[in-house]
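Field reference: sequence -> structure
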Amino acid sequence: MPDSNSSDSHEANAGVHIKPCDPAWPERFSAEPSVVGQSIGAWITGGIHHVGSTAVPGLAAKLVIDIMVDVADLKSSRPCIELLKPLDYCYWPYLAEVMHWFCKPRPSHQTQHLHLVPTGSPRYLNDSPVSLQSG
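Structure field:
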């Protein structure tokens, strides 16, 4: 993990850029569930969901695909941190008390954010596909 003085850390904290809706966003998401599922399937309790602004058709969004994975709890899913490394998911202890958070492929160039969230937790309920559709 980069330290706070590294260029990766500095670039990771750069401003968010919003772009018009891109019809390729669902396709960019669609490649991830099978590889993530093969790697950490034993810890997945619900599903692998495309969430966030790129999941909403027609909405302008940041250029990062947000992916939420339901897990039983954070403690038992800690092995996923190592298992996701070969897929270029970099763990970062962002909101570590509520989720395991990853970026891909590196902090200085993020194309995906992966959130491992306990099923039924407030974070899960706020970011779930159901709440996105009804909000």
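Note: The CA atoms of residues 98 and 122 lie 8 Å apart.
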